[in-house]
Structures are given as structure tokens and as C-alpha cells.
Amino acid sequence: MKTETTLTAAAAVLTGAASAAAADAAAVNDLIAKIKSADDAVRGPAWQGAGPVGAPAVAPLAEVMSDPHFEIARSAKRAIEKIARHAGRPGANPERKAVEAELIKLLSHSNANVRRHAVWMLSEVGDAAAVGPMAALLADAEVREDARCALTRVPGSQATDALRGAMDGAPEEFKYALAESLRARGETVAGYPSKKLVPVKQTSVKAEA
Amino acid sequence: MNRIHRRSFLQRTGAAAIGATALGLPQILPARVLGASYTQPSAKDRLNIAHIGVGGMGGGHLGYMLARQSRGDVNVVAVCDVDENRLASAVKSTGGKATPYRDYRYVLERKDVDAVVIATPDHWHACQTVHACETGKHVYVEKPACCTIEEGKAMVRAARGNRICVQVGSQGRSQREAFLAHQYIANGMIGKVHTVKCWHYATPSDDNPVPDSEPPAELDWDLWLGPLPWRPYNRRYLHGVFRWLLESGGGQIRDRGAHVMSNALHFMDADRTGPVSVETKGRIPTRGLWDSAIDMEVTYQFKDPDWTLVWAQPGEMVPYFDRDRVKREGIREGYGAVYYGDKDKLVVWVGDGQVYTEKKAVEFQKPAGGVDVPKSPRFDHHEDWFEGIKTGRKTIMNIEGGVATAFLCVLGNLSLIVGRKLAWDPMRQEIVGDEAARRLMSRPQRFPYAL
Q1: B216 touching chain A per CB within 8 A
Q2: In chain B, pLDDT over 70 holds for what percent of residues?
Q3: What angle do CA B265, B270, B272 make, to 5 degrees?
Q4: Partner of B422 at 20 to 30 A CA spacing, among B10, B80, B286, B365?
Q5: Residue B198, Cβ density class (10 Å: 0-12 exposed, 13-18 middle, ≥19 buried)
Q6: Do A156 and A129 form a contact (C-beta atoms < 8 A)?
Q7: Residue B223 CB contacts under 8 Å (≥ 6 apart), including other chains
Q8: How far apart are the first and last CA of chain A?
């Protein structure tokens, strides 16, 4: 009898999980369909209300960021922002971790715009688990500057260590940027002084005599 | 007019500066005097001014300074812009006498520049102000002061640490009827103020979005973006319309909120305080590049003393009482604020270069022993800045006031961005209890355009 009850309860959990997954999938499909609409009256409320759809929608939305219709691509990008910011609310750590995990996966996406957006979103909701994958982008010529900025925002010694660790193999010019990040985090860096006050851009406009 | 000539002023204050430093008093002197290579004051009596950003409001500032130059008050020695067409036009307006620059850091390298007027898009204000302070230039910077909380803190540190006179361009505080409204409220005529409700018309939406494209030849897109993350050019970013993007402008709450709420903080003597909570409801555009709220209502709760500030787009507009004057002077009734006290209320219209208030405040005679409130010389915001430079006294819209006002604007948008009420520690100037929102207090800058 006891075994039967346990099995029944387990089946109910599985059924519940399956129902939740089905509901998630339906919500994601509905969101993606609306985001792909050419009508902003459909698309706009969809991306604006994307937050509660959560982590399952992150990867499908990242694919829509490559849509040739620039307004659809932008809507997908903004939907991911909504999801990350919703998940970042106080008391929603499991949701935040789920979104973080999906964003980390996007750091190896073939589209640089997706990688760039993911690393910036992780600067808002990523924790120590995201630092290593974010730091890997410091070697990615297309998005290394965004990764540096994003890591600068993430608190904790792991991010500091990652920025310092990247100094070794970085291109010489990028070491100045890494040094700027480290100093912004209160670290001491030998060499590679700030270039913020160094002018470089000449005008072709002339003063008249 | 008993004008203080710069050379004689420097000769007098240069000697006095040692004493001032010993007493821990502000010591405000031009860069040329503070520089290590200084030997004698320049042969010129007049402050040397450089303009960074010469389109839009920047063009207005340049015109103002050129008028002062013609009266012998200042020298306009440099103009700077990332748009070559605007720069060429500015040089022409100076009669070809000002040196043109694309990169403002050349301006800051010049030892003969005493002060800069910064009228660039908002995302540049903090970097350029901090850098100007660090190179010893006095600063007039357009409002709103900053785009993030950390930027604002850096601006205050830089101004204080380098003893720089900063005036933020919320010029409403300097207007005659703002002074009269302030005086009326400060003297208790409406009682204890418990609520200030601002109204303002909506932020426009980008109803004709366009794809990204190549930047025009005259524009240095990299330098326009400056500290913002790199992205392709889109003509919906500029000029002027940068105001409707959260990153570079922030909508009406930052553009005009930096005027109307500046006056609220000033009248409430609240520059050194801040709200304890901020809650925003709003409607954001469904399409286009511009992402600032079209309509919004932000409620700021202040404590000790307790009062409530409400920024509302559109809110409840109060028509000005004199329709003839509205037509005659072009009074922009689309924004303003109502101050509610426990005895009465007072309406203050507009809030920037125009400020109007009710007759009862205009006609009010301060009684003997009444409360004095700050007053800009000749009700001129720039004149107040010059006086601040020359005397070392705080300007009416000093960096602390400018940053406190900008924080209201920033927090109002942040609450909408994260979609929740924010708790704010006004003493530590930090968001509390919300790690993700806390991270948005800063925005790391793209190299090398760092604070």
C-alpha cells in the first residue's frame, strides 16, 4: 500500500513537471510568435511582458536577434533584457540562476551581437558562476571590450582575478583597458597608465586667420 | 560698474589663497595660476573660455559667451565638437578666432584655458566634467549632470578634490520668479510643504524607425559614443534626439525633470538629502530605437522631513492665469509643479530659462527677520558661475545640487527599467536590498573614455 502511494505521488510530481514544462513551452512559443510579428501592436506588448516567461525563452529569443527585420531583432533583444531584469528581482534567486545559466550558454553563440548582449546581461545578474565564461570572451576580438566592461561591473574577487589573469595573454593595447578596469575596482596596476586624457583625434576644421 | 579685473583679482586672491588653504577654505583659481609652471598672471584680465559641444544648447551658450566677449568679460579661445559641420559653424561665429578641436582632450591640455562650457549629450557629461576638474578647469555643464549614480559621485569627488567651481545648467534656480517662489515657500507662506507634484507632457516615440547605417562623413561616431558601448550608427541617435534614449538622454524626466525637480530640491532645501523610496509606473514605446517612457509617474518619498515628490507625464497641467502673458511671452505651460503645504499651495510654471509663479509670491514682501534665500546676480545663471569662480562661493546649482537632481531622474528611470520599487539610502547614496538594481548604479565606460 505504501509503495503504491509513493508511486502515485511520484507520478503526480512527474505529471506536474510535465504540465509545467508544457506550459513553459506554450508560453515560449506564444512569445516567439508574437515577437516575430511585423505588427508592433502585437510585438511590443510581447517583449514588454516577456519577463515572467523566464529562462526557457532566452535561447529562442537569441535566435530571433538575427532576424533580418531590424525591429523584430531589437524586440528579441529587449525581451531578453526584460527577462534578465525580472529574474534579478529580490527573492527570485532560482529564476536568476536559471536565466544566468541560459545567458552563459549564449556566450559561445555564433552571432557576436548575441554574445555581446549576453555578457552585458550577465553584468546585471551574473554571479561567480558566470565569471569564468565571461572572462573567456576577453580573448574574443569582437566582444572583448564588452566583456571587460561587463566584468568590471560584477562584484567579487573572482571578477578581479579574471581581469588580472587576462593581462598576461592580452594584446598590448588591450592591457591598458584591462588596467583601467582593475583600477576602477580599486586595484593597483603597475604600468599601463590611463589614456583617458590623451587626445588623439584631429579636426580638419581650420581657424580663420 | 565696479567690475573686478581678473589680473587684480588674481593678484589679490593669489596672496590670499595661502591663507585660505591654511584655514581649509575653498580656493578657486584658474588653471594658469594653479599650474606648476605658473610665474606671473597672464597679461589678459579675462577668463579664457572653451566650449565643448557647440550644437543645440551649446550653440546658445556660445552665443551668450560671444556677447560677453564683446563686452570685454571673457575670451572665447576654443570650440570643440565631434561634428565637423557644427564645429565649422562655431568657428565662423567667433570670427575665426577660436581654435577648433574635435577631441576635447586637446582643450584640456591647454594651460591658458580657465573654464569650459560642456554642452554635449548626457552620456558625456560625467567624463568631461571629471576630466576638466582634474586638469584644473572650472566647469559649466549642461543638465542633467550624470547618467548613473557612480558618475554623479565621481563628479562631486572631482570638483571637491580639485577645488573646481561647477555650475550645472539647470538655470531655473537663477530666474527671478524662481527666487520669489522660493522666498515665499521658505518664509512659510504655504505652511509645511508635504507634497510637490510635477507635470510634464509626454516623451515622443520613434514612430518611423530606420535601420542602422554608415555615419555621415562629418561625424566622428566613435567620439560621439565615447563611453557608451560600441554599436553601429543609427540616425535616430542624434542630434538632439539623444534625449529620448535611456543611455544618452533618458526622456523628459531627465531633460525637463532636471529643471523642474531641481527647483523642487532647491525650494525644499533638499540638495543634500534624497528620497528613501522611488516607485515608477510607465508606458514605454512598442517600437523604434527610443526607449524612454512615453508616460510615467514616479513617486519619491522623502523622510525627516517627510514629503512626497511626484513626477508625472503628463500629470495635471495647471494653466497660467494670465492668458495675455502666455501669448506675449510664449510661456510654455506644458510643464511645472504645484507645491502643497498644510496652509496653502503654490504653482510654479515651466522651470528652466522661464520660471513663472503666482501673484501672491511675486508680490510678497519678506518681513524683517524673514528667511533669505539664494539669489543669482542679475538673475543670470552664467553670472552666478563667474561669481563662484571669482569668490570661491558655491554656485546656485553647484555640483552637489546638480547630482542630487540627476539622481532623482536616474532613479526614476531605474525603477521603471527593473520594474519594481527601489529603496534608496540617501546618506550613503546607494540602492539597498536589490543587488541587480545596485549594479545599475554604474555603467562601465568603453576604453579609453573612462571617468
Answers
A1: no
A2: 90
A3: 120
A4: B286
A5: buried
A6: no
A7: A201, B82, B102, B103
A8: 102
**Which chain B residues are closer than 8 Å to A67 by Cβ?**
none
* DSSP letter assigned to residue B446: P
Residues B265, B257: Cα–Cα separation, whole Å: 11
Query: Of B136, B171, B206, which one is at a domain's C-terminal end?
Result: B171
Cell numbers describing residue A16: 506536474
CA distance A133 to A131: 6
Write out chain A residues lying below 8 Å of B448, CB-based. 176-177, 180, 194-196, 198
Of A90, A116, A177, the CB nearest to B447: A177
The cell numbers describing A112, all together, are 557576436
B87: nearest CA in chain A?
A205
Residue B112: strand pairing partners: none
CB-neighbour burial class of residue B94 (10 A; exposed 0-12, middle 13-18, buried 19+): buried
Min Cα separation A169/chain B (Å):
18
- The residue out of B122, B156, B171 marking a domain boundary is B171
> What structural domains and CATH numbers belong to chain A?
21-98 (1.25.10)
* Cell 546676480 sits on residue: B377
CB < 8 Å from A in window 149-208 of B: none
d(CA A67, CA A117): 15
**Interhelix angle A112-125/A144-153, nearest 10 degrees:** 10
CB contact under 8 A, A181 and B444: yes
DSSP per-residue string spanning B291-325: -S-SEEEEEEEETTTTEEEEEEES------S-HHH
Whether residues B96 and A176 touch (CB distance < 8 A) is answered with no
Per-residue pLDDT for B25 more than 50? Answer: no
Q: Which residue has the cell 538655470?
A: B171
- pTM, full prediction: 0.91
Residue among B376, B377, B396, B395 at smallest CA distance from B26: B395
B155 and B267 in a common domain:
no
pLDDT at B7: 33
Q: Which residues of B touch A96 (CB under 8 A)?
A: 436
Asked if the structure places residue B62 within a domain, the reply is: yes
Q: CB of B127 within 8 Å of any CB in chain A?
A: yes
Specify whether B203 is located in the same domain as B310.
yes
Residues of A in contact with B220 (CB under 8 A): 201
- Side chain identity, residue B70: S
The C-alpha of A11 sits at a distance from chain B's nearest C-alpha, in angstroms, of: 38
pLDDT at B201 over 60: yes
Taking a C-beta distance cutoff of 8 angstroms, is the pair A56, A28 a contact?
yes
Q: Tens of pLDDT along chain A (209 residues)?
A: 556 666 676 666 667 677 777 878 999 999 999 999 999 999 999 999 999 999 999 999 999 999 999 999 999 999 999 999 999 999 999 999 999 999 999 999 999 999 999 999 999 999 999 999 999 999 999 999 999 999 999 999 999 999 999 999 999 999 999 999 999 999 999 999 999 999 999 999 998 75
Note the ipTM here.
0.92
Query: What count of Cα atoms within 13 Å lies in the side-chain half-sphere of residue B152?
Result: 26
Are B278 and B312 within one domain?
yes
